Amino acid sequence: MAVFFRSTRLGLAVISALGIAFASPAYAACTQDRAVYTDRDDDYTLTFKHFPEDQPMATSNEFVLQRNETELKLDGVVMRDDAARPNGLIMYNCPSGDATGDELTACTVWEGVPYALKDGVDAEYLPKAKEPAAQALLLPNLSGAMSSFNFKLEKPIETFPWEVFRFKECVREQ
Predict the structure, then answer these.
(1) What pLDDT, on the 0 to 100 scale, is given for residue 166?
(2) From CA 161, how far away is CA 70, in angstroms rounded?
(3) Rounded to two decimals, what is the model's pTM?
(4) For residues 84-94, b (16+ Cβ closer than 10 Å) or e, as one string?
């Protein structure tokens, strides 16, 4: 009877562990540099850029924000100091190469602190590229910043993203 009890407890522990492993969300197994997010209405996709392990990084994260089914693409970076909060920038049509401060200011659509959201009401700073991906992202006042930016497009943008982006998928390593 004791052997049956031990093996049953072991079996239940194994089944329980497998259940947790298979039930764990996809974002938990994904690094931030391979995560893809979408806004509430699926109008915008935010895709982080993958960094190979051996490549030095000038920023802690880079991403592209795209309005789905359009050509509108914005580039994003997150920079960190060891002692300070991360600072995110979303830019549109910035000059390549060395740009002046005025040129960067003119093409910056949004600047702020990107937050990682968890179940409940927890908010933390955005994970670094090789850390586990966030469940959701908060880019405070992104919609307001985009609505006041002059994109100089023939057809004005009518729909702006929500400020919360939920994890959609993890891009496979290549």
Answers:
(1) 97
(2) 14
(3) 0.80
(4) eebbbbbbbeb
